[in-house]
């Protein structure tokens, strides 16, 4: 049988087509169940055909370059978009991976539930993309890195076997096999569904805005408050330039920074967390400012109100000790290149935060590689960069599970 | 040449090694003083604290397996060298921390080289701004915590084995401390690991998780119990030392009401450090171990059947006919204070055990005990405590004041040291810690209690609560005529308990790990997903030298 007829046998004629999507030409398969995914992969494995998983959100990238130039199929999770089970007692949802975070959120909302305070831009991706591909933006000050919400996954291995990791709040029965599949970008298994921790809508949400004498003071204030165990639902620092740009007419003194903070939870606790942040700000020489700024920030972040600025040119992740260095290094290097750089810092979690730089020049005029180099030298982590130190082990792991190398070849290689 | 052939826990063992040569080779790496092949050392490292081994040990039966040699590395490069040696000679390596494991994870079933990590015990640094410390794996838990405390931090990890376990052992088993509801289990606190793998490489898994692409190696290695390599140091998250501690005892009608109250608290986003709910029998036995000394017939600290001491009820009013059973229970609770025969009679009859349980439920009609504690930064802890207590009262729990809470805190490590009287009297005691989501927690409780109750006296408390579920800690005590009968009974209890756990969809271990004890049940726990663990084993330890025969791995 040809590849095409094998795939038709697996999912039916209506769900196999030749297509070019985002410059990806080939056979596109849209299985309608986990069992069909297993069937597609089992048949692809027999034929030695590469399987590239494709999510349904807006962030799909071209697959990595597969040097073997073999035949390949793109397997879309578009039809795997069902909520399989909602356990309101344990606050867990079991959903197929083709559903986008926002669609899931729409299903949870009427029941007073939510995936959590993750940036909505993250939730435009499908669940599969959110958990299979790590990017530093998928984090929330209140709930941590998205992956920590994954309690279990179901996935298909290269030989067509389906695995379901056991769902338990915590366990001590060997490695966390679900976490081994998270972030592995479809190279170890094709994730078909995931069990996620969800949250009750908080009783209260509070926001506040502060002006601090410098970016450094703002970063210090945040970590001071976190040391006092404040658990904010959102934090963002704007430098002087970005504060003016994001909030029309806001004029800060040169060097000053704007900090917006949100807290959530039982009313008393939300108020307590807000007060802890306020006192940290005061300790760092700052002051509370117009509440309307914070309201606007939150509405833009979570209520879809448009932000009047272009997307940032550069995202650099920094650990708490490196955030300042990363910020200053990039701004200074840009100045040396004759470019005005500005930034806001957001997506804080225990690992650190994410610095979003905007560069005041046309993209083609900028030596981005040079700036990235400087950021990296200052201790920053580039978006999508990866360490290669454990590649030998990943290769060995893949060779064990996928001897024919069909699982998203070219990725993480 | 020494050659040993015997059957060990169902495995046919065949180990051959040229011990003299092995000793020479090891001395070339470690020098003469940090290698031992002396019988007394080999015996010592033949076991951990797995109760099944203690039964034989008590009855004077020698260890079924010993290592060929024990070494005490002081530097990672020595471990690299010993892995190289082990691969050349195809000799197993067994990483060894405090030896406090209760599942036989450190038992050298095929002999080999036991690596005692306790000489690698430096707390190298604490990065204040990141709240991360860098610590060597062999550091004793209590010394680690004390060292952190001295500098104004806490790791927040307080297992009852804290005096006799190591940081590396915690990481290797995914251990939990008693305050895990606030601080998380140990795997939630790892920023990076340094590991010598079965290939003899030193790897580091550090880096912000969210910025690293590819599988999560830290989470793949945590919990591997020395089957993939040996953890030599770790970067762990610490908290500022708590400024305030609030502990309180509560009482609530029954188990379902208590669980509902706890669930409401944790799902509200409140994070008490510890929440414990004792079932009726656990509550009762607790009460007897803590009776006012003036009322007891002797004032020696009573050894308790493996239960942590906790909030204390007044002595319940009893019907006259119930007194007899309850006296036996008191005897159990006091271990020493009752005649051996009476206790063994009670333990030997599961029908009796069940009856005792029925009585306990009757006499403890007043409810189940809860202990709840919060700690942390002053202001936030105060607010959180007020909200937590209000929520518990709204759920029907009655405040019993601070004393029961502090009593629990004072005695919280005692459990690990109270097993010997029971063993001395010819019985055995062990604990089974399973966990599930809230939805099936009561199913888990009833089915495991029933499964163990067929064979032994069983009681339980619920601890380690999370927003999505909770762990149940069963304590059981049994007795049989002789060593083999006791081992058979012990195995039957675990078989039935584990199968009952798997059947309701819960996990077979919350924090004790797998080792040899739960290895036969790993297939039921993970089913097809074991393939990923097996693949990781092949990838990290291609020659299978690390801790063979454990965790249900094929090699």
Please give the count of helices of chain A: 13
Average the pLDDT over all residues of chain B and give the rounded result.
86
| Strands side by side in the biggest sheet of chain A | 17-14-16-15-19-20-18-21
Spans of chain B of at least 5 consecutive residues whose pLDDT stays below 50 are: 1-14, 290-326, 335-339
What gross morphology of chain B would you assign? Answer: globular
SS summary, helix count of chain B? 20
Distance between the termini of chain B: 24 Å
Biggest sheet record of chain B? 7 strands, antiparallel
Share of helical residues of chain B: 25-40%
Biggest sheet architecture of chain A: 8 strands, antiparallel
| Alpha-beta classification of chain A | alpha+beta
Number of beta strands of chain B:
20
Low-confidence runs of chain A: none
Strand content of chain A: 25-35%
Greatest interface: A-B, 82 and 93 residues
Structural class of chain B: alpha+beta
Give the strand tally of chain A: 21
Strand order of the largest sheet of chain B: 17-14-16-15-19-20-18
Q: Compute the average pLDDT of chain A.
A: 93
What Rg of chain A do the Cα atoms give?
23 Å
Give the oligomeric state of the chains in this entry, treating copies of one chain as homo and distinct chains as hetero. heterodimer
């Amino acid at each position: 049988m040809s590849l095409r007829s094998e795939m038709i046998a697996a999912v039916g004629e209506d769900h196999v087509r030749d297509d070019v999507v985002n410059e990806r030409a080939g056979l596109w398969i849209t299985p309608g169940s986990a069992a069909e995914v297993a069937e597609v992969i089992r048949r692809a494995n027999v034929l030695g055909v590469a399987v590239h998983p494709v999510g349904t959100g807006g962030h799909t990238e071209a697959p990595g370059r597969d040097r073997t130039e073999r035949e390949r199929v793109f397997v879309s999770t578009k039809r795997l978009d069902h909520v399989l089970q909602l356990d309101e007692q344990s606050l867990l949802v079991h959903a197929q991976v083709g559903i986008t975070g926002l669609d899931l959120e729409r299903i949870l909302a009427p029941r007073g539930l939510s995936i959590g305070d993750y940036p909505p831009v993250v939730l435009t991706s499908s669940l599969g993309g959110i958990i299979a591909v790590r990017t530093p933006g998928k984090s929330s000050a209140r709930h941590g890195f998205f992956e920590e919400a994954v309690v279990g996954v179901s996935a298909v291995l290269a030989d067509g076997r389906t695995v379901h990791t056991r769902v338990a709040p915590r366990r001590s029965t060997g490695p966390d096999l679900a976490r081994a599949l998270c972030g592995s970008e479809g190279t170890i298994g094709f994730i078909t569904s995931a069990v996620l921790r969800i949250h009750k809508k908080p009783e209260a949400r509070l926001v506040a805005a502060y002006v601090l004498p410098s970016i450094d003071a703002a970063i210090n204030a945040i970590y001071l408050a976190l040391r006092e165990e404040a658990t904010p639902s959102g934090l963002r620092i704007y430098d002087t330039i970005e504060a003016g740009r994001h909030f029309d007419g806001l004029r800060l003194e040169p060097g000053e920074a704007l900090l917006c903070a949100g807290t959530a939870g039982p009313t008393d606790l939300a108020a307590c967390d807000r007060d802890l942040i306020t006192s940290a700000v005061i300790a760092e020489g700052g002051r509370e400012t117009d509440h309307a700024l914070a309201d606007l920030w939150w509405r833009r972040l979570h209520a879809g109100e448009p932000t009047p600025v272009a997307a940032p040119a550069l995202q650099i992740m920094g650990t708490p000790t490196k955030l300042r260095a990363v910020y200053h290094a990039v701004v200074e290097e840009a100045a040396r290149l004759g470019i005005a750089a500005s930034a806001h810092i957001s997506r804080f979690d225990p690992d650190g935060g994410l610095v979003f730089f905007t560069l005041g020049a046309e993209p083609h005029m900028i030596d981005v590689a040079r700036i990235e180099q400087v950021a990296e030298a200052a201790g920053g982590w580039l978006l999508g960069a990866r360490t290669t130190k454990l590649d030998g082990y990943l290769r060995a792991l893949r060779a064990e599970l996928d001897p024919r190398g069909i699982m998203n070849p070219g990725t993480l290689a | 040449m020494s050659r040993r052939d015997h059957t060990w826990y169902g495995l046919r063992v065949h180990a051959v090694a040229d011990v003299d040569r092995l000793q020479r080779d090891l001395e070339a790496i470690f020098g003469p003083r940090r290698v031992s092949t002396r019988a007394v050392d080999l015996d010592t490292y033949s076991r951990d604290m797995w109760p099944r081994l203690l039964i034989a040990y008590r009855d004077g039966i020698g260890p079924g397996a010993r290592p060929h040699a024990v070494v005490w590395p002081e530097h990672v490069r020595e471990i690299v060298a010993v892995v190289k040696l082990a691969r050349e000679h195809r000799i197993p390596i067994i990483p060894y921390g405090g030896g406090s494991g209760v599942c036989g994870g450190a038992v050298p079933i095929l002999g080999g080289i036991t690596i005692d990590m306790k000489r690698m015990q430096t707390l190298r640094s604490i990065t204040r701004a990141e709240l991360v410390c860098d610590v060597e794996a062999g550091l004793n838990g209590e010394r680690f915590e004390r060292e952190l405390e001295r500098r104004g931090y806490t790791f927040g990890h307080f297992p009852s084995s804290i005096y006799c376990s190591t940081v590396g052992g915690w990481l290797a088993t995914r251990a939990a401390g008693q305050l895990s509801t606030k601080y998380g289990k140990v795997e939630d606190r790892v920023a990076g690991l340094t590991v010598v793998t079965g290939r003899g490489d030193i790897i580091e898994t550090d880096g912000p998780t969210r910025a690293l692409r590819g599988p999560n190696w830290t989470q793949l290695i945590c919990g591997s119990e020395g089957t993939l390599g040996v953890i030599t140091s770790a970067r762990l998250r610490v908290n500022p030392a708590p400024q305030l501690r609030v502990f309180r005892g509560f009482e609530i009608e029954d188990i379902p009401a208590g669980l509902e109250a706890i669930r409401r608290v944790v799902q509200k986003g409140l994070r008490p450090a510890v929440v414990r709910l004792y079932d009726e029998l656990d509550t009762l036995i607790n009460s007897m171990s803590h009776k006012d000394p003036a009322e007891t017939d002797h004032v020696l600290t009573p050894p308790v059947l493996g239960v942590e001491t906790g909030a204390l009820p007044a002595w319940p009013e009893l019907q006259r006919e119930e007194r007899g059973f309850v006296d036996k229970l008191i005897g159990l609770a006091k271990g020493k204070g009752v005649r051996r025969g009476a206790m063994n009679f009670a333990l030997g009859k599961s029908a009796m055990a069940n009856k005792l349980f029925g009585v306990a439920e009757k006499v403890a009609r007043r409810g189940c005990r809860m202990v709840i504690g919060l700690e942390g930064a002053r202001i936030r802890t105060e607010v959180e405590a007020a909200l937590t207590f209000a929520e518990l009262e709204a759920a029907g729990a009655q405040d019993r004041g601070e004393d029961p809470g502090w009593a629990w805190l004072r005695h919280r490590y005692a459990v690990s040291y109270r097993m010997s009287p029971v063993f001395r009297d010819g019985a055995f005691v062990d604990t089974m810690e399973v966990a599930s989501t809230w939805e099936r927690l009561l199913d888990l409780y009833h089915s495991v209690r029933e499964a163990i109750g067929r064979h032994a006296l069983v009681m339980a408390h619920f601890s380690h609560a999370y927003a999505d579920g909770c762990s149940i800690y069963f304590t059981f005590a049994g007795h049989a005529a002789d060593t083999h009968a006791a081992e058979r009974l012990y195995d039957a209890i675990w078989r039935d308990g584990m199968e009952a756990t798997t059947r309701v969809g819960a996990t077979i271990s919350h924090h004790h790990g797998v080792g040899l004890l739960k290895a036969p049940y790993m297939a039921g726990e993970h089913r097809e997903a074991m393939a990923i663990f097996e693949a990781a084993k092949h990838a990290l330890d291609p020659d299978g030298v690390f801790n063979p025969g454990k965790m249900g791995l094929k090699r």
